[in-house]
Amino acid sequence: MTTDTVTPMMAQYLEIKAEHADALLFYRMGDFYELFFDDAAAAAEALDIALTKRGKHMGEDIAMCGVPVHSAEGYLLTLIRKGFRVAVCEQLENPAEAKKRGSKSVVKRGVVRLVTPGTLTEESLLEARRHNYLAAIAEVRGAHALAWADISTGALHVLPLPPSRIGPELARLAPSEVLVADGADTDMHGLVSDIGASLTPIGRAAFDSTGAAKRLCALFEVQTLDAFGTFDRAEIAAMGAVVEYLEITQKGNLPLLQPPQRENLAGVMQIDAATRRNLELTQALSGGRAGSLLAVMDRTVTAGGARLLERRLSSPSRDLDVIRNRQSMIAFVVEQSRFRTDLRHDLRKVPDLDRALSRLALDRGGPRDLAAVRNGLEGAEDIAARMGNMELPEALTILTQDLTGHDALLDLLDQALIAEPPLLVRDGGFIAEGYDADLDDARQLRDEGRGVIARMQSEYSQTAGISSLKIKHNNVLGYFVEVTATHADKMLSAPLNETFKHRQTTANQVRFTTVALSEMETRILNAGGRALDIEKRLYDRLKSAILERAAQLTQTARALSQLDLTTALADLAVEANWCQPQVDASRAMNIIGGRHPVVEQALRAQGAGPFVANDCNLGDVSDIWLLTGPNMAGKSTFLRQNALIALLAQMGSFVPARSAHIGVVSQLFSRVGASDDLARGRSTFMVEMVETAAILNQADAGALVILDEIGRGTATYDGLSIAWATLEHLHEVNGCRALFATHYHELTNLTDKLARVDNATVAVKEHQGDVIFLHEVRKGAADRSYGVQVAKLAGLPTSVIERARVVLDALERGEREGGSARDALIDDLPLFSSRPAPAPQTARAPSNVEEALKSVLPDELSPRDALALIYELKAKLPASETH
To answer: What residues does ATP bind to (predicted)?
Structure first.
């Protein structure tokens, strides 16, 4: 394109781009996706690929870049992670069809899919062990709801909730994309950005509850949604927005969504975003999975089991029946060592059924997804057979029933597919030999065309009685029968002339054809295409057979995931010596020998010795422990480990302790660590106060609260007063269970005033001015914080440490003698001396050399004796001083 004239192809591009202005347009041209104009400049920079040009438009060069179709997924992932949306524009016909309309006709093209963070399905674009949620937030007449779907697994959930719970629930789900109505308030933008999700405003019509109800009924082919539960208008609007967005992005090719499941806030332990971050449930504070509780616990061997683990860890249950059922399955598997090992071996061979089903439903699957279903069903049958010979708990028996019942489908797939199919349908070769006679014939012609022609030549030679008869081929005549001129009369006479039709005579040969040979020629020439067409038809048939049983297959996938998680948690319990907790409706929190699972594993990996276990007893005599002691003694670890033990108990897991009795925790709050939020103008202290305020305003009597060093970010007396008032509020107003760590020793006197508060401290031992951390939590109060000793361990210069001791002694003496005496002492301290105070002289024991010299009389030594004495004294010096 060398002029300003807009070519038909570019006109087509501009028309399609105008309909998808907010997305990069991947415009299919042969084996490449091409991008033009601003799209090309943005994509070239994001992907670090060459930016070129193609002709001109309105006097300016048209920027262009492209990526190969066969490797486009990797580029798509990069663009999505960098915040782009991509419209994939495919050729909807082949060039030959376009030419029928005229030599200059443009191949029809259209956008077949919008690729966004929440609508990914490709295996290479997703994390196998994590969900990829698309969420929508709806508000109808003051009522709010949150709906979310994972189109890669078909999950669809909805939750009615107050506005204050939107942030915590988004933190729990960690969706990759959140839909809101156009014009959503800025607070919503902040909530979404906090979890690192992509915010997508869509038209308010998508959230219309009346239209949403119609969309949902059409999707699930029902007259009313009542069969799935009772949903209010906000819930229907949120689910409808999800479905509308999927229709837009998938261009009407909707995923295989499961019927909606309505969740209830009262059904799970409530955990806010700050608590999830502080406790490092699924992500470490440093970023990434390593160092999180999830990473320590994940021993699952299937992708579905790993996703289920993250769901349960993020949403501990408050339903005692659910908790006890999960525990009963783990307890059974713990006792069955050989069964556990064999079951985990079987589960390792099970593929990801959920995502294979989803790709097939969206028509993005391939032969390997068919094989994944087959292999998954085979694995399920083997596991069911293994479990069928055992006396199982009721919960495991129910799971076993969901593993079977697919005999006809399994037989069909087993007969139809080869063991290791190719990735793509267009590659062919995935249907087993002997399954379809027409396919076998086409393959034989494709692969053995010469042999077929040779057999026909032998037959014709016998029929004609001419041993020199040959079947040959050229580009003009195709396949033909050739004899020498001496046999021409015989071939042209009856009865052979009825079979062999004359085509051509040359100087020495005569050439003929037959109806069968012409047909065979057509079949041979088209055999490859015909074989592929047959395989495509068979693929569609097999895919339909699978999707007809999608609901039952989903149940099987769910059962396999639960078995995987059960055996993984049992394996962890056995190896790490975790116990089965007692969980009930009491207020107890009696933990004997509790340990922090992440810290314990880190110590084990470092060979740093065993973790010091500690007890915690709340809810019987005291609801609150006021924990004092020095930094680095383990206060924060103790706080976190008890919160994690309660969380693990309610997700149905065993826990890291010798024994544990946990009364159901309704809410879990944690205010631990220091961080700022400069983007919102919040200092470290402001963040601390905001999080503390959220706890005091929301915690109910069933909550468990852990607070560490409240008030430390401001002046001493300000901080002390805030900590004092916070502790009183937890005791008098919230009435919850709490662990409250502080350096304000003045608070320990509150145990005389607040009946349900007990003092506890982390024990230390002093030795020659140094502090030794015992990491033992005991009843009682610490008398000081040992801050100077900890500073010494941290490596502060000796002069600083000694100066700090002088100042500390003065301050403490002044505190004992009263305010005015203290002020006078401070005035006497040269706090701003131009030179650092000299290190104090400390007495030391005489050395070996000094001891030896005490008895020496120099006047009585001869020169020889003096030399001998020097050698003797040198020998007494330490090795480091002899060089």
So the answer is: 629-636
pLDDT reading at 191 higher than 90: no
Q: Judge whether 629 is annotated as a binding position.
A: yes
Give Cα 291 to chain centroid, integer Å. 15
Q: What is the 3-state secondary structure (H, E, C) of 526-590?
A: HHHHHHHHHHHHHHHHHHHHHHHCHHHHHHHHHHHHHHHHHHHHHHHHHHHCCECCEEECCCCEE
Residue 846 confidence (pLDDT): 73
CATH 3.40.1170.10 placement within the chain: 8-115
Each residue's pLDDT tens digit, 647-657: 999 999 999 99
Max distance between CA atoms of the chain, in angstroms, equals 149
Residue 86 backbone zone (phi > 0: left; psi -120 to 50: alpha; other: beta): beta
With a cut of 50, say whether residue 835 has pLDDT above it.
no
The pTM of the full predicted model, rounded to 2 decimals, is: 0.83
Question: Residue 634, annotated ligand binder?
Answer: yes
Asked if residue 528 belongs to a known ligand binding site, the reply is no
Q: Is 237 exposed, middle or buried (0-12, 13-18, 19+ CB in 10 A)?
A: buried
Residue 132: closest CA among 311, 341, 353: 311
* Distances in whole angstroms, Cα of residue 191 to Cα of each of 172, 675, 690: 12, 18, 15
pLDDT at 882 over 70: no
Domain(s) labelled CATH 3.30.420.110 in the chain stretch across: 127-263
Please give the C-alpha separations between residue 496 and each of 491, 504, 868, in angstroms, as whole numbers.
6, 16, 130
The CATH fold of domain 306-406+549-576: MutS, DNA mismatch repair protein; Chain A, domain 3 (1.10.1420)
Alpha-carbon distance of 410 to 760, in angstroms, equals: 62
Cα separation, 466 vs 491, in Å, equals: 10
**636 marked ligand binding residue:** yes
Which CATH homologous superfamily contains domain 582-790?
Answer: P-loop containing nucleotide triphosphate hydrolases (3.40.50.300)
Task: Please indicate if the annotation marks 619 as binding a ligand.
Answer: no
CATH architecture of 437-536: Orthogonal Bundle (1.10)
Q: Which CATH class is domain 8-115?
A: alpha beta
CB-based contact 747:625 (threshold 8 Å) = no
Mean pLDDT for the chain overall: 88
Tell whether the model's pLDDT for residue 736 goes beyond 60.
yes
Give the side-chain half-sphere CA count within 13 A for 457: 18
Domain with CATH 1.10.1420.10 in the chain: 306-406+549-576, 437-536
Does the annotation flag 635 for ligand binding? yes
- Which CATH number is 127-263's, of 3.30.420.110, 3.20.20.140, 3.30.70.270, 3.30.70.120? 3.30.420.110
Q: What is the pLDDT of residue 440?
A: 92
